[in-house]
């Protein structure tokens, strides 16, 4: 996907020069390999800092919330769905946005790369088509990108943006025959004791740093429930029950809104696969309400509206 | 969906109950309360999501 970089730069330059947008939001190369950073550019002469490759794993929609200016933004499948969700939730208006759509072929899991090179220090990653070369002090290895996709990208069925003003390339083929909920089904088959054991073990290492919340484009409340002290909704310690409560609440706030962009897992400093919480909600939203978040700017989310035929078998 | 999520995490089915009872439905309230009490009793004391008080030496 690195070949999109030049097109993104040209587009951003044109948009900024013509005054169509005040700022352009994209990614730049990180200071260390595999850690590309979001960047907001307002000077057309500085567009050369923009960068795009298969290591742009954060969600840019996070930087749109309540902005007042005209914004150019790049968006692949999941990011565009978050933009739709933002529009639906009145966090930004469509008229303010110029969306440069990216047909995405998936993002590389930097942790998988590190594991593959035996946790040696990676000094450079170069992408060539569907392969990439990782090099460092005394080693250089080439891998197939398809085998190193993040777990959410590997089962992604919305690679192309759902909303855009122009595309940097023609749409890519959507993946077929992937089951996004294979892992959820495995957990569903467990008995309550095993389930509890699985999730307790999973969040054991949580530091309560809230990086997952901060990286999530859905988490834009001025004061998060975890930061409030009057009333204090949830204990602030790393007591296992407090941590579990935090994770349940964080996930439930994403019910019917999560696009499975994977930003939360990417930023977790201890590598907790917390998408297991939100994926269950995504699965239920799909099964009960035939709903996948952010696909249609004209449809209200299921938890936002009442319909007489809503699923309600659980009400006694 | 909340029930689905909590039961996915390991809260036993039957421990979390939802109902809608109007203030005029006294008999329904009694029925539901008895059903809930019975289903929770059958499950026994809660094992998960319990915060223990800090032990002070």
UniProtKB/TrEMBL annotation, chain A:
Residues 249-278 form the 4Fe-4S ferredoxin-type domain. Keywords: Iron, Iron-sulfur, Metal-binding. Signal peptide: none annotated. InterPro entries: 4Fe4S_Fe-S-bd, 4Fe4S_Fe_S_CS, Helical_ferredxn. This is Dehydrogenase, beta subunit family protein. It holds the Pfam family Fer4_8. It comes from uncultured Desulfobacterium sp. One of its GO terms (molecular function) is metal ion binding. The keyword Ribonucleoprotein does not apply.
Automatic annotation (TrEMBL), chain B:
Transmembrane segments: none annotated. The keyword Zinc-finger does not apply. It comes from uncultured Desulfobacterium sp. InterPro entries: MvhD/FlpD (IPR003813). Residues 2-44 form the F420-non-reducing hydrogenase iron-sulfur subunit D domain. This is F420-non-reducing hydrogenase iron-sulfur subunit D domain-containing protein. Keywords: Iron, Iron-sulfur, Metal-binding, Oxidoreductase. One of its GO terms (molecular function) is metal ion binding. The keyword Iron applies.
């Amino acid at each position: 996907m690195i070949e999109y970089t030049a097109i993104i730069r040209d587009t951003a330059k044109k948009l900024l020069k013509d005054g169509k947008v005040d700022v352009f939001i994209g990614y730049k190369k990180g200071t260390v390999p595999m850690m590309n950073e979001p960047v907001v550019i307002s000077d057309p002469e500085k567009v050369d800092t923009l960068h795009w490759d298969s290591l742009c794993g954060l969600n840019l929609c996070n930087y749109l919330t309540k902005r007042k200016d005209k914004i150019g933004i790049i968006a692949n499948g999941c990011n565009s769905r978050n933009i739709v969700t933002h529009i639906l939730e009145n966090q930004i208006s469509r008229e303010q946005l110029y969306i440069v759509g990216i047909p995405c072929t998936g993002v590389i899991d930097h942790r998988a790369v590190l594991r593959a090179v035996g946790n040696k220090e990676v000094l450079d990653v170069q992408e060539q088509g569907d392969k990439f070369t990782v090099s460092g002090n005394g080693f250089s290895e080439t891998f197939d990108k398809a085998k190193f996709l993040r777990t959410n990208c590997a089962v992604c069925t919305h690679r192309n943006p759902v909303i855009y003003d122009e595309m940097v390339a023609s749409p890519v083929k959507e993946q077929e025959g992937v089951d996004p909920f294979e892992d959820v089904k495995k957990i569903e088959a467990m008995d309550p004791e095993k389930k509890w054991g699985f999730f307790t073990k999973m969040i054991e290492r949580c530091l309560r740093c809230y990086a997952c919340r901060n990286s999530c484009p859905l988490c834009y409340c001025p004061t998060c429930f975890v930061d409030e002290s009057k009333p204090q909704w949830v204990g602030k310690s790393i007591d296992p029950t407090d941590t579990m409560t935090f994770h349940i609440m964080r996930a439930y706030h994403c019910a019917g809104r999560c696009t499975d962009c994977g930003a939360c897992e990417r930023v977790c400093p201890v590598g907790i696969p917390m998408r297991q919480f939100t994926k269950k909600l995504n699965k239920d939203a799909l099964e009960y309400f035939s709903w996948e978040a952010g696909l249609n700017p004209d449809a209200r989310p299921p938890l936002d509206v009442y319909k007489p035929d809503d699923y309600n078998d659980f009400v006694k | 969906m909340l029930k689905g999520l909590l039961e996915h995490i390991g809260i036993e089915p039957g421990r979390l109950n939802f109902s809608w009872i109007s203030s005029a439905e006294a008999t329904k309230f009694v029925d539901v309360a008895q059903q809930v009490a019975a289903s929770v009793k059958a499950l026994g004391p809660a094992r998960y999501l319990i915060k223990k008080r800090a032990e002070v030496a």
